[in-house]
């Protein structure tokens, strides 16, 4: 059944938009005042319907050429079209005429943020916050700019302030947890979100993010409870089902994880994604035959599902059938290039990573390297994919690129012992002993011993490697004896 395009809007919005479409867009005439046109324009902005949006702005400008609110909508339209210079010109003119207009200040913040002027944007958002209107949106934008400046404390502070206002949106909740994770502040996120859901018990996004926080702290039972709360609020919350299934998988409860995903089929039309997710569950426990059966079901449900073909390729690779693996991954790449996703116009990271892994297994370094580079160029890679690329470079002794990439990754994931370990090893193998020494306090001793055993017996560096709390424990030494 086709969803009503006005299902998130009240009757006034519906009536005004339909009146506009039945008159102005069809060449007739009808009077609309400024406030009504503002509502109509904002509706088209909300649903991202650009053609009637442009016409609505033009019509409003014809009737009210000196209206501040209409000129603001023109500036917003310019920003949406990435016409930042033109938008800034319009907004600066308005600023001179109305220096105390907080709506203009907010729009200047948006435009300056879009062109990378984060400090200017923050200053304008602070001005906009003075009138106390839509603080959730203002604070969320401020948080985003602080994040761009890598000021995680300020970013998290303003995301919290946004959520504590009455006008926050769901994206703010997700962004708050993403930044908490990136900044290594998961425990603080648990505390804040735990208190937040007490005051906002029907906020499904907060329950979902709280579940993610518990999951990332390996507190799986609490994570399961949180995801179940999110699902109880919204029976069709697909992301919560997927996260719940993943958590059950981490707990070793594969059958429960599969059952959770099968529940999604009752209301979710993308069967291929569900089957693919189930296939991945079985693949993670090395049950490749069952995984392949579900990946095949995914390709049958959607013959254009590039990710399903990529996952099939990895299964065939694990089972030693390199010829079929190559065939499937090439099919995945072809589909991805022919039918690119709107979310991944430069290439699907899952497909590119699978292609890199298959070609690496076939000892084709240059092909594998090309796919890894394409993956990184998308900017959409996950941390596990980032780690795979680091391991690939290290295996092939491309240490200078390992260093460059791991240093960048450590800037994004500053609390990752993985990148510290690989950096220490790469510095060691390129005779940069002082730099290697500086990384040693943050390495994983067991991982370092595996990838760079020479450093462990080095007369100067070896004694500086931190002890492994498990390997060096009295109980473990007793077991080894």
SSE map:
Elements: H1 11-23, H2 34-47, H3 50-63, H4 68-80, H5 84-97, H6 102-114, H7 118-128, H8 135-148, H9 152-164, H10 170-182, H11 186-199, H12 204-216, H13 220-233, H14 238-250, H15 254-264, H16 271-284, H17 288-301, H18 306-318, H19 322-338, H20 349-361, H21 365-378, H22 383-395, H23 399-412, H24 417-429, H25 433-439, H26 445-451, H27 453-456, H28 474-480
CATH superfamily of the domain at 269-381: Tetratricopeptide repeat domain
Instruction: Tell me how many strands there are.
Output: 0
Share of β-strand residues? under 5%
Order of helices and strands: HHHHHHHHHHHHHHHHHHHHHHHHHHHH
Overall pLDDT confidence:
91
Kindly, what is the distance between the CA atoms of the first and last residues, rounded to a whole number of angstroms? 68 Å
What sort of overall outline do the alpha carbons produce when their principal axes are compared? globular
Report the structural category: mainly alpha
Runs in which pLDDT lies below 50 for 5 or more consecutive residues are 470-481
User: How many helical elements?
Assistant: 28
Radius of gyration based on Cα positions: 27 Å
CATH architecture of the domain at 269-381: Alpha Horseshoe
Helix content: over 70%
Instruction: Report the top-level CATH class of the domain at 269-381.
Output: Mainly Alpha
Oligomeric composition of the shown chains: single chain
CATH topology (fold) name of the domain at 269-381:
Serine Threonine Protein Phosphatase 5, Tetratricopeptide repeat
Q: How would you sum up the major sheet?
A: none
């Amino acid at each position: 059944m086709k969803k009503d395009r006005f299902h998130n809007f009240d009757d006034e919005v519906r009536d005004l938009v339909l009146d506009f479409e039945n008159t102005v867009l069809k060449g007739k005439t009808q009077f609309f005042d400024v406030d009504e046109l503002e509502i109509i324009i904002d509706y088209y902005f909300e649903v991202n319907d650009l053609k009637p949006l442009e016409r609505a702005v033009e019509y409003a400008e014809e009737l009210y050429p000196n209206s501040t609110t209409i000129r603001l909508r023109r500036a917003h339209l310019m920003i949406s079209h990435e016409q930042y210079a033109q938008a800034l010109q319009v907004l600066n003119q308005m600023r001179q005429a109305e220096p105390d207009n907080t709506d203009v200040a907010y729009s200047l913040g948006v435009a300056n943020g879009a062109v990378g002027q984060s400090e200017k944007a923050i200053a304008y958002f602070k001005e906009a916050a003075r009138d106390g209107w839509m603080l959730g949106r203002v604070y969320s934008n401020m948080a985003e700019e602080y994040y761009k400046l890598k000021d995680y404390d300020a970013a998290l502070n303003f995301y919290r302030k946004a959520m504590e206002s009455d006008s926050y949106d769901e994206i703010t909740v997700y962004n708050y947890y993403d930044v908490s994770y990136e900044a290594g502040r998961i425990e603080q996120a648990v505390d804040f979100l735990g208190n937040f859901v007490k005051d906002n018990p029907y906020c499904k996004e907060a329950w979902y993010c709280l579940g993610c926080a518990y999951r990332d702290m390996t507190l799986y039972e609490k994570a399961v409870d949180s995801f179940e709360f999110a699902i109880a609020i919204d029976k069709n919350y697909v992301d919560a089902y997927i996260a719940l299934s993943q958590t059950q998988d981490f707990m070793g409860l594969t059958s429960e994880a599969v059952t959770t995903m099968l529940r999604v089929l009752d209301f979710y039309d993308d069967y291929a994604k569900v089957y693919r997710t189930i296939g991945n569950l079985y693949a993670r426990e090395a049950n490749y035959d069952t995984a392949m059966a579900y990946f095949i079901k995914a390709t049958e449900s959607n013959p254009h599902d590039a990710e399903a073909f990529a996952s099939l390729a990895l299964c065939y690779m694990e089972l030693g059938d390199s010829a079929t693996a190559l065939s499937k991954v090439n099919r995945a790449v072809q589909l991805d290039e022919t039918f690119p996703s709107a979310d991944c116009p430069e290439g699907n990271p899952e497909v590119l990573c699978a292609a890199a892994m298959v070609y690496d297994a076939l000892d084709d370094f240059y092909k594998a390297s090309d796919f890894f580079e394409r993956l990184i160029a998308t900017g959409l890679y996950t941390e596990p994919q980032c780690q795979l690329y680091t391991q690939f470079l290290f295996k092939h002794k491309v240490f200078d690129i390992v260093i460059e990439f791991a240093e960048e990754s450590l800037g994004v994931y500053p609390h990752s012992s993985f990148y510290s370990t690989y950096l220490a090893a790469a510095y060691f193998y390129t005779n940069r002993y002082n730099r290697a020494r500086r990384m040693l306090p943050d390495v994983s001793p067991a991982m370092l011993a595996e990838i760079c055993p020479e450093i462990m017996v080095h007369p100067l560096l070896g004694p500086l490697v931190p002890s492994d709390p498990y390997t060096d424990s009295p109980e473990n030494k007793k077991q080894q004896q």
